[in-house]
Amino acid sequence: MTGFARTDGAVPGLSWAWELRSVNGRSLDVRLRLPPGLEALDPALREEATRTLRRGNVSATLTIKREERARLAVDPAVLDEVLRLALDVAARIPGAPPPRAEALLAMPGVLRAAAPDDAASEPGVAAVKAGFTQALAALQASRLAEGARLLAALVTQLDEVAHLHAQAAGQAVDQPAMQRARMMDSLTALLRGNPGLPEDRIAAEVALLATRSDVREELDRLSAHLDAAHALLQDGAAIGRRFDFLVQEFGREVNTLCSKSASIPLTATGLRLKAVIEQIREQVQNVE
């Protein structure tokens, strides 16, 4: 979901530039930075971004540069007040000359910057909105290019999970028998010191515990999750949240597999699976 786009343009009297940036996010968060006078564009631009994007923290910054210096204009109300005061003072001083125009214009507030023709005008607003649409399309193209790279990386990582899954399945074939033998050795030593314990009940409990240590169910579910992950990649439309949930399920199955493991090789394979699944989880945060 990372990406960058920039568009710029000009209308008579000013130039503008849009910069759009996108970084990872669990949901869509659009932040618009607009110069004074263009705040009214926020709802329409935000709605347009929401129609195009689904996930990510997106910031859109509009920069306006006026190509002409601001014109000065007289504030009639302030000038009238200053002129009235100047004439009143001159009338009280015998022989005083009338107020000079340049002196009146130098008084604070008499001159102010005239509102220039800028982006708030109809042509300016239309140009700025069109530029945002272009930048949004370029941002989406950038995100799609990143998505193609992510797809290749995810396929490679899922293939690694499939390889480790097959390895774990081979290592787990003798898992119940190994667990049963280990428990029987421990209980045999215990029975030597406690001959009164019923051996048939102990054997039944050992068999139950050995059955519970069977990891075939976890491996079957992990295989189903692999199929679901490949199906999501084929779907390719707003799969980020679904993929994120699926990766959590990957993690649960592998955690249980490791906790049930009765052999060092199977535990080592489970830990490698954990590492690859964590890599997938990090990549999925970039997927829309």
How would you explain this protein's 3D organization?
The protein has 288 residues and is α+β, with helices and mostly antiparallel strands. It has 3 domains: 3-69 and 123-142; 72-113, no CATH class; 147-284, Up-down Bundle (Butyryl-CoA Dehydrogenase, subunit A, domain 3), CATH 1.20.140. It has 9 helices and 6 strands. It has helices at 42-52, 76-92, 101-105, 122-171, 175-193, 199-212, 216-235, 240-260, 264-284; strands spanning 3-11, 14-23, 28-33, 56-66, 72-74, 111-113. The protein has a 4-stranded mixed beta sheet with strand order 1-2-4-3, with helices on one face. A two-stranded antiparallel sheet has the order 5-6. A hairpin with a 2-residue loop joins β1 and β2. The longest helix has 50 residues, at 122-171.
Task: Give the distance, in angstroms, between the N- and C-terminal Cα atoms.
Answer: 6 Å
Number of helices: 9
* CATH fold descriptor of the largest domain: Butyryl-CoA Dehydrogenase, subunit A, domain 3
Largest sheet: 4 strands, mixed
The proportion of strand residues reads 5-15%
Q: CATH class of the largest domain, please?
A: Mainly Alpha
Question: Top keywords for this entry?
Answer:
Butyryl-CoA Dehydrogenase, subunit A, domain 3, elongated, alpha+beta, two-stranded antiparallel ribbon, 288 residues, single chain, 15% strand, four-stranded mixed beta sheet
Mind sketching the topology for me?
Layout: E1 3-11, E2 14-23, E3 28-33, H1 42-52, E4 56-66, E5 72-74, H2 76-92, H3 101-105, E6 111-113, H4 122-171, H5 175-193, H6 199-212, H7 216-235, H8 240-260, H9 264-284
Parallel strand pairs: 3-4
Antiparallel strand pairs: 1-2, 2-4, 5-6
